[in-house]
Design a protein that fits this description.
single chain, alpha+beta, SH3 type barrels, 5 strands
Length: about 80
């Protein structure tokens, strides 16, 4: 099973985007050719490809669920 975590597109250049995953300052270059992602979009990334564009509300909902799950295990370190 694979887990996709929402990230925010902060830069787009030639079919690739720089995606910011938030709190821990993690950023990754991803291929956006499968979506219509633009700067400011939230995306789900799988295997280096943005596979879906999310609304801000959808992204926040997923992040809150992941934080809740992490707190059940007593940590969010390495998860978010």
């Amino acid at each position: 099973m694979c887990l996709s975590i929402p990230g925010k597109v902060v830069d787009v250049k030639e079919g690739f985007a720089r995606v910011d995953y938030g709190e821990h300052g993690i950023r990754q270059n991803v291929n956006i050719s499968l979506t219509d992602a633009k700067v400011g979009s939230y995306v789900l990334v799988q295997g280096g490809f943005a596979i879906k564009v999310l609304t801000s509300n959808e992204a926040q909902e997923v992040l809150e669920m992941l934080k809740s799950i992490a707190s059940e295990f007593g940590t969010s370190e390495g998860i978010l």
